[in-house]
């Protein structure tokens, strides 16, 4: 079975980075594809408990693919939900903090 921690770090890196570079005004094609990418995770993610939790969370809180900020925040909140369950720290879901971590790096 895959290493759930390594898989998780790699997947969060991919997802948060993709959200950080998602367009401010995505086209319909970009939205549809992002939604497909996210909806595939509960079906295909190779950690079945993770996939199950994500699927439940996505039912109560559907992904926001309408803007870069909306998507970044939605993912951040999903990640925080997992952090809470695992006893990890909560991340502050502002565009500033998210861009610093996943796009621009720290200023100065
Ligand atoms: P990670 O949680 O992997 O975080 C990597 C980096 O992201 C952190 O160092 C930090 O800089 C940054 N970060 C932290 N929080 C946020 C945030 N909210 N927004 C943006 N950036 C942030 N593991 C389980 O044991 N059980 C599960 O049910 C489970 N479900 C998962 C569901 C999904 C969809 C994914 C992708 C992973 C899941 N994992 C689960 C794995 C888990 O989330 C961690 O990836 C893993 O435990 C390694 O944790 P870590 O402390 O190295 O940092």
UniProtKB/TrEMBL annotation:
Required cofactor(s): FAD
Domain of life according to the entry: Eukaryota
GO cellular component, one term: mitochondrial intermembrane space
Reaction catalysed by this enzyme: 2 R'C(R)SH + O2 = R'C(R)S-S(R)CR' + H2O2
Keyword field: Disulfide bond, FAD, Flavoprotein, Mitochondrion, Oxidoreductase
Compartments where located: Mitochondrion intermembrane space
Protein name: Sulfhydryl oxidase
Species assigned in the record: Dichomitus squalens
Coverage span on the entire protein: 101 to 208 of 212
């Amino acid at each position: 079975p895959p290493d759930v921690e390594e898989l998780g770090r790699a997947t969060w890196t991919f997802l948060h980075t993709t959200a950080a570079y998602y367009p401010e005004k995505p086209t319909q094609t970009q939205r549809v594809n992002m939604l497909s990418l996210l909806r595939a995770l509960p079906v295909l993610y190779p950690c079945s408990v993770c996939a199950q939790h994500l699927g439940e969370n996505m039912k109560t809180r559907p992904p926001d693919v309408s803007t870069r900020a909306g998507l970044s925040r939605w993912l951040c909140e999903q990640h925080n939900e997992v952090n809470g369950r695992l006893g990890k720290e909560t991340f502050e879901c502002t565009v500033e903090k998210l861009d610093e971590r996943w796009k621009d790096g720290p200023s100065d």
